[in-house]
Amino acid sequence: MGKRDDLIAKYADDLKNKCGMQADIDLLTKVTIGCGPSIYNADASTVSGGDQAELDTVKNNFLIKKLGLSESDGLDAAIAGVIDTYGKSNRNKYRAVFYYMLVKHYKKESVYN
């Protein structure tokens, strides 16, 4: 297995053990690939739930630009829901897992097909 495969296995484990979700490995792989090289950078591979600027970036660059959602789709509430599901006390919120949960929340799997 390559480095990306190892990370996808780690993300699937996070989904199962920290979020109580069974991962769709095919979709998780596509979301991970969509994150690009950021998954290999310690800082960029995680989302800081307490950093409003970072959450705004998730909202603008991922939810609005990538998934094609609008402000009226309750974006802040969805992000807050993902943070709650992942666990506020959990320091390492992996970007790929965060994005995966948002894709599932909005039923936007078609973006990755």
UniProtKB/TrEMBL annotation:
SUPFAM superfamilies: Jann4075-like. It holds the Pfam family DUF2853. It comes from the Bacteria. InterPro entries: DUF2853, Jann4075-like_sf. This is DUF2853 domain-containing protein.
